[in-house]
Amino acid sequence: MAPSLTRRLIALGSADPERAERFLAARELEGIDPGAVLEGLALAADPDAALVALVRLIERRPEVRRLVEDGPVRSEPLFRLLGASEALGEFLIRHPEHLDVLERPLSAEPSGADPGELRAAMLASVGADPRSGRPVAGTTGPEAYAALRIAYRRHLCELALRDLGAASPTDFMPTAAAELSDLAGAALEAGLAVARAEAEASFGREDVAAVALAVIGMGKCGARELNYISDVDVIYVIEADGAGGDGGPDGARAARIGTALATGMVKAVWSSGREPALWQVDANLRPEGRDGPLVRTLDSHLAYYARWAESWEFQALLKARRIAGDAGLGARYEAAVAPLVWSSAERDGFVESVQAMRRRVTENIPPSEADRQIKLGAGGLRDVEFTVQLLQLVHGRTDESLRVRDTTSAIAALAAGGYIGRSAATEFDSSYRYLRLLEHRLQLAKLRRTHLMPVSEDALRALARSTQGVLDLGRASPEQLLETWHRTKRSVRELHERIFYRPLLNTVAHMSAEEARLTPEAAQARLAALGYRDPQGAMRHIEALTAGVSRRAALQRQLLPVLLGWIAEGVDPDGGLLAFRRVSEALGTTHWYLGLLRDSAAAAERLSHVLADSRLIADLLEVSPESVKWLGDDSDLEPLPLEAQWQEIQSKISRHAEPAAAMRLVRLIRRREILRVALADRAGILDTEAVGHALSDADQAAVLGALRVAEGAAEAADGGLLTRVLVVAMGRQGGREIGYGSDADVMYVHRPVPGADPDAAQRQALAIVGSVSALLTQPLKPPVLAERMLALDADLRPEGKNGPLVRSLDSFAEYYRRWALVWEAQALLRARPLAGDDALAADFMELADSVRYPEQLSAADVREIRRIKARVEAERLPRGADPSRHVKLGRGGLSDVEWLVQLLQLQHARRHPQLRTTGTMEALTAASDLGLIPPGEAELLAEAWRLASRVRSANVAWSGRASDLLPTSRRDLEAVARWCGYPPGQATALEQHYLNVTRRARQVFERRFYAPEH
């Protein structure tokens, strides 16, 4: 590399000058004066990102070259935008037809766009008439959604260029924030027009036209101070023309139409599609929050506010403003709630409640983010906003000049009214503008919500350059940025503490974004800060994922800064990143994969978390990567019913005569369903019982398939079937209570067909069951280390390991009549047909019922059960294991609950059919309902059993290995706690809860299990 070029690139702010030179030599830039490119890069906040985007842009549209060739005056908009916003650069690459936005020269003193023109342009994008009071779109569905979003992002490009070209970005900040709010309102107006057109198909044009919907903006959007990317908080108000009369729909129908309009509008801006979603629309500030109806009439709103609203809700209403929908209804809403807002400070304890809320916001910041928070931390934006809003609410009761929505105007009004000293107001205002500018520039880079200051030097440099005015770009540095930011935070915090908490108020009131390209230095610093144990190893994975200039690599560069943070939230970030790389490589250039992660934040975040928190899921996803698609839709995670699995298995078997090939497909189906269950379990879609049922169904379907294949092979070998075979589930499989690490306890029964030789039938039955076991345990290729092969354990059969593996039904009947011990009757409590002949199953279950539900359980039998239980505890608990932490055999664990329930079944099931169930929880509920055990004790036992079951499954999900111990390692315990639904950092809470619950469950067990006979 030429030393002079290297020095110049470094002076421009390039983090990787060697790579930058390679891009400067790209064929797309051939013939362009390198000096012109370097002049342009000098204007870019992130010259590396700008250069990469420039090459990609010229590749799509060669005419972009002339902007560079014409010199810095013409190319300035191009380089400023590409260097400040990777996301908008990606938009222009996707839609080069909008490159004309770069043709307009920048202005050092820009102005904002007219709100009416924005509204008209957005409505026009979906074919709606902007002159209509309730416009209806001319297009619907994905076509309309894409058109709306493309139009929005074009306007966003225009605004960003004016913002980036301003001589004083802090002076332009309020104008930019207001325009962002107006643009969001215009987008919702267009989305509402689309929703009206779509709703007409369901409700009819006249009824839809008769329903007025006003969209009330809250928070930053309501105050016209929105960020480049923020949730848009809203409340919906409806009104029907001629409600209840002949001229319009009644109240219930109007509510349904209003709900359809609101949800359709949100879908237009937020649903997945070929053009990425814009931002989330959040209606949780509505009355009753998520539990309340999505839409209400104005009278319903007012009734709620008069009776039920809390103080914080009135503080939120201070920002309320109609942003879309019916103007008259919106104006009436604003007028109606205003008196409530400005009298709210008279409520008892109002000031204290606002102050307490601000403290809770600060206390809930994760410690790792506390020093990087621009918004929520000490000296951040929330300190300014809470201070200003409280002063407005306190003094605005009597001073109408304070009744403004946006923060900068409110500060000016407070200073003019003498409520804040002029010097404090000036400092507050400049600090707020500066913090908002930081927030704007961080979010503009990737159009992703973030409020955290980056940590790497390169990212800090890019942020410093992007926050400077056009005349000061060369003087930006990371050190100056951090110094200014820390000084600003100190100033805000001092002012906040002095003003926000001053006692006088009570008397008066009576009451990181990362840079686009991850260089090794920047990435390793970021990874170490995030908690990766091997940053260099993680870098190798990142380099493998992002190498090259392909679309796939570009998307990975866009996604990874987000995904790395989510993966780092897991227990094993290094393992999670490795798994992500393997899944990505397995899916290759599959068109939907990266699109799903880009367009569905929920799917991307869910994938990141499961890969870092579960070895089982990570390994299964590596061999079944197409299953990632399920993460985008919860309905895809619903377990497949047994009948559907069996139907699919029969179809597969019918097309493969060779047993090994047929059984491979059966095992693949089982593997797939185990993965589905694990993903649903981790997502919180399934509870403990549902997980056990779903896993049991997957195993049963596999056994059904294996038996069908084995019988087919036996029939071919022997010239026909000589006997009918039944596989009987026992133990936890019989109760449909298995976990990820459970074997299948079974017994084998057969009945010779009429006329068959009994000895030959016995030999065939042995061959069939042997084949079933072998077929189920053949490993799949590629193997999965964490996958459990389905091992069938027949040790619970009569005479145990010394008895024949398979018996005829008559042999079972004779054995149980003459020799059955009480423990065998107890074992049969879990027996249920798993696979095989239906008639044989019915006859065997009739036999089992006669044994497991005795007329009376003798005192000797009770003593024997107690003796066996004590022996199991003494002999089977692993040497050195802590009984208080063994989830199966330990204190208050699975064994204690199950043995107590089974004792009650043996004693009472003959007289009470409700107890005749193989499920532990069903039997425990029945025992409680019958008064055999107090409800409180039954609830405690159920809690202990469920928690122990969940810990047992969590051990397998986390490590891929079965373990019956509550971990002692903090890392393992943290992983188990998260699987059990505890928030990060709550491993000790799980441990204490488990030990407490099982200790009390053991007390109940001992009191009931060893109770003297009366």
Automatic annotation (TrEMBL):
**By its UniProt entry, which CDD domains does this protein fall under?**
NT_GlnE_GlnD_like
Molecular-function GO term, any one: ATP binding
Chain segments carrying region Adenylyl transferase: 512-1014
UniProt enzyme class: transferase
- HAMAP family given for it? GlnE
Q: Which protein family is named in the record? A: Belongs to the GlnE family.
Q: What's the protein here called?
A: Bifunctional glutamine synthetase adenylyltransferase/adenylyl-removing enzyme
Instruction: Write the gene name.
Output: glnE
